[in-house]
Amino acid sequence: MASTQREREEKFEIADEVDVPDLVTLLPTGGRLERDTVRLHSTYYDTADGALLRLRMTLRRREGDTDTGWHLKLPAGEARTEVHVPLDGADLPAELRELVAGAAGDAPLVTVATIVTERRRQRLLVADGALLLEVADDRVAASRPDSPPTTWRELEVELGDAGSEKLLARAADLLCGAGASPAAAPSKLARALGRQAPERRAGALQRYIDQQVDALVAGDVALRRGENPVHATRVGTRRLRSTLRIFGACFDPAAATALDGELAWYAGLLGEVRDREVLRARFAAAVADLPAELVLGPVAQHLDTTLAAEQQAARDALLAEMSGERYRALLATLATWSAGPPLTETGQQGDPVLRRSAETATRKADTRLRQVLRDGSDDEQLHRARKAAKRARYASELAAPVVGRKQATKAVKRYTRVQKVLGDQHDSVVAAEVLRRLAAEPAVGPCGFTFGVLHAREIAAAAAGRRTVAKLR
Q: How far apart are CA 91 and CA 65, in angstroms?
């Protein structure tokens, strides 16, 4: 049975002759420092063309420590998520093969590198034994099927559950002061293979794209594990599509249009699942809020059963598409964009064009809002204003390093509020239409009366939402 944990670490290069400083100065009162040495043997697997590494995924079989087993590492912002499966023979577990099916497709997973590490560890512990920080001094020997072995030395600094980002930064300063430097390769595997995996580059545009691709990759694996990452994954597709449109001048038009279309297709599949999930919770709360005399028949059960069946059908359809060529092609395209999007001459200008594009997005959102305040409460206009506010919010997020955190945070807060007010109004419109559809079904029975009551409440909520919109400035 697989388990997961979060990993947050930094890597450093260090010359053979440099001594690693003692970390006792970082200990809190009552803490202690433990030292030991372990020998780790890791075999890494990927497709022949490196499909997993392109999406910042690594798959390995490790022996030699308490975390002996199969490990699948996935991107998670500045951290990583590790999926662990115990060793049970030499063969790759079918569970892990399924989890990487989106990235690998039908291609066989082969041994791409074997890495043996002599690891000297310093472990900072609090009084009760909880881990604050671990510094590993690694002597690495890596071999590949098609090249001579290579050796090097590196340091890994990993946060424990009781640690903090501040402590990690202090340890990094201590090590760099002793002669270490940030590692050029993001992982031992990337260095062993003699190539760089897609890495966090300095540009705000690239970083934002990377973050959304990571969200989709993490969502892919979570869906295959039976978890529910639909909302976060759908938001990732929305942020990517917003980036393609707001910053469209930065990208090759044909490539951007093609990716936008595929993301829209995938977002639609996710939306069919997410919309039912949201409606189930909304209607359950609404029925619970009704006076008992207005609830005729098994209303809550009827609504939940119907929408749950629709949600499951939508999830089945989503998973079926995730096994198809179209979806795998989308992941391959995302890997290409993460490695380096197809930038135009305009896109290569960097910060100035990001600033202008973000300002254009905020002006458009403000214009759309003024139009609905001036012209009335047409639901379609309100929906268009909501989408413009959402794009302005995402554009402000992306451009924060360029325009300044304070200004960007203020803009994000403003457009998040506008988006919520307009979104609440839109949700009432959608909920009313779903209730009308369900009430028209032949098997609704006495529940139809209560459906009508709920419908009337949603219509009233939509009207109240329009009045709230009128107060936005």
A: 20
CA 290, 295, 300, 306 torsion-angle sign? negative
Calculate helix-pair angle for 204-224, 230-246, nearest 10 degrees. Answer: 150
Closest C-alpha among 200, 116, 196 to residue 151? 116
**SS3 for 177-225, per residue?**
HCCCEECCCCCHHHHHCCCCCCCCCCCHHHHHHHHHHHHHHHHHHHHHC
Range of the domain at 260: 215-469
Query: Taking the CB of residue 471, how many other CB atoms lie within 10 A of it?
Result: 8
**Beta-sheet pairing, 110-125 with 131-144:** antiparallel
Residue at 430 is within a domain:
yes
For residue 137, give the 3-state DSSP assignment.
strand
- In this prediction, residue 6 has a pLDDT band, given cuts at 50, 70 and 90, of confident
What is the predicted pLDDT for the residue at 220? 96
The answer as to whether 206 is a domain residue is no
Is residue 66 situated within a structural domain?
yes
Whether residue 245 contacts residue 287, with contact meaning beta carbons closer than 8 Å, is answered with: no
Do residues 404 and 257 both lie within one domain?
yes
Q: From its phi and psi, is residue 41 left (phi > 0), alpha (psi between -120 and 50) or beta?
A: beta
> Quick one: pLDDT at residue 41?
96
Q: What is the pTM of this model?
A: 0.89
